[in-house]
Structure formats: structure tokens, C-alpha cells
């Protein structure tokens, strides 16, 4: 059976995109202006980060923070019921963007 070079190239390119979806993503990339303006009461990520009750860029502060407070904040200011749902939606969007 003859090889389909175009298909092989497409599969290799897709494999590279899949590999690029792994690894850490900053909060600024995850919760970008587009995502924040579509999914929350805030116009952009800067206003969101100023209002959120924890410094999301500080792993130490985030680790000490009570997640139920973030759940309440997210439920009050977004289309989601919890911080976990909010993060999962943002992460899903980033994976889809990276695969395109």
C-alpha cells in the first residue's frame, strides 16, 4: 500500500500540538481577557485579578487560601458554581486553542 505523505505530515503536526498542550500555563494565559469578559462580570483579566480575594500568582498564598471563598466569588461573578468548574473551562479552552 502506498504511503500517504500528506497524512503522515498532518499526524506529525497534530502530535506536536498535542505535546504542546502539556506543562504549566500561567494564570494570565489561562484567564485571558477574552475568557474573563465572556465568562464573568468583569471586562478584562486585570479587573478580575484585582477583585479576586487571593493573589493567584503566589503559589504560597494560594495554597493557604480557603477554596470555598473562591467558590463563592466565582459563583457570584461568573457563569460557574465553583472555582474548579471555572478553572476546568479555562483549561479546556486553552487545550482547544493549542490544538488548532
Question: Could you describe the 3D structure shown?
Answer:
The protein contains seven helices and no strands. With 100 residues, it is mainly α. It has one domain. The protein is elongated. 11% of the residues are buried.
Number of domains: 1
Q: Average pLDDT, to the nearest integer?
A: 81
> Tally of extended strands?
0
Low-pLDDT stretches are none
Shape: elongated
Portion of residues in beta strands equals: under 5%
Helix percentage: 55-70%
Helices and strands, in order, run as HHHHHHH
The oligomeric state is single chain
Number of H- or I-type helical stretches: 7
Distance between the termini: 30 Å
Q: How would you characterize the largest beta sheet?
A: none
Integer-rounded radius of gyration: 18 Å
Q: Decide which structural class fits the backbone.
A: mainly alpha
List the helices and strands and how they pair.
Layout: H1 5-20, H2 27-30, H3 33-39, H4 45-51, H5 59-64, H6 67-77, H7 83-99
List keywords for this structure.
100 residues; mainly alpha
Summed up, what is this model?
The protein has one domain. The protein contains 7 helices and no strands. It has helices at about 5-20, 25-30, 35-40, 45-50, 60-65, 65-75, 85-100.
Amino acid at each position: 500500500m502506498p504511503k500517504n505523505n500528506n497524512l503522515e505530515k498532518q499526524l506529525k503536526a497534530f502530535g506536536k500540538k498535542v505535546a504542546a498542550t502539556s506543562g504549566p500555563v500561567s494564570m494570565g494565559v489561562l484567564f485571558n481577557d477574552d475568557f474573563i469578559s465572556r465568562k464573568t462580570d468583569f471586562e478584562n483579566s486585570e479587573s478580575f485579578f484585582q477583585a479576586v480575594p487571593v493573589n493567584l500568582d503566589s503559589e504560597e498564598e494560594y495554597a493557604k487560601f480557603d477554596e470555598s471563598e473562591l467558590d463563592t466569588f466565582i459563583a457570584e461573578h461568573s457563569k460557574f458554581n465553583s472555582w474548579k468548574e471555572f478553572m476546568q473551562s479555562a483549561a479546556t479552552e486553552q487545550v482547544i486553542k493549542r490544538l488548532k
